[in-house]
Amino acid sequence: xxxxxxxxxxxxxxxxxxxxxxxxxxxxxxxxxxxxxxxxxxxxxxxxxxxxxxxxxxxxxxxxxxxxxxxxxxxxxxxxxxxxxxxxxxxxxxxxxxxxxxxxxxxxxxxxxxxxxxxxxxxxxxxxxxxxxxxxxxxxxxxxxxxxxxxxxxxxxxxxxxxxxxxxxxxxxxxxxxxxxxxxxxxxxxxxxxxxxxxxxxxxxxxxxxxxxxxxxxxxxxxxxxxxxxxxxxxxxxxxxxxxxxxxxxxx
Length: 252
Ligand code: NAP
What we know:
By secondary structure, this protein is an alpha/beta fold. Helices cover 31% and strands 21% of the residues.
């Protein structure tokens, strides 16, 4: 069965690796091409956009894809929308593999905001030392608040013109440990953390470290995406694919 995995997350990579070793499946792993040295699974890989809903729909038909798993990051909302629409056009079954959101724990001090513009506003007027752990794409929003100084962490360097004036960039790819995150926040005298509610374990230690130090977190809520069948782990995604392999599934 040809399976398209829309990737870019740890779970997407792990699912692709599982399918790569399973000769019932012929998995295709798709990435947008944002990172310079992406982690690629041992499946056929395709890098670059499809060209919107129509491009994806055409590609699904041309490549005879029988199932699509949207395992993109919860903040990759455009790709998730496109997947829902293309699945509806082509009747290719779609499953969204998405980790659960982080939940507020005792001791957390979160300011939950709807988007990055609201995150900028949540930093307030008084100068602060903020840790931006949001990837590089949306760092430019913080040029609107140049009174703060920023520690920006990303996998690849953000464009210099999109950086706020008082910025320091560190290039790191997760997973991160609690001890390292604690040291990073302390060493850099961070007053406030800005994070997306990504979910999962790899990026969570910064939230735990902020809790330990009593540092507030501006938590950007996930963007809304249209409904699709969902699961939260790789085993459930595999079970969904196996169900599609059953002969009865094709008669319905
Ligand atoms: P996005 O805004 O939802 O998507 C913008 C466009 O990029 C899509 O319309 C599509 O182009 C292309 N695209 C996105 N994901 C793709 C994929 N897996 N395969 C092929 N094309 C893809 O996406 P984004 O937020 O820029 O994220 C891009 C990638 O980075 C995704 O794979 C995502 O999983 C990963 N990622 C994102 C974040 C984040 O915070 N946003 C964090 C970690 C990883 P066409 O319309 O031309 O098809």
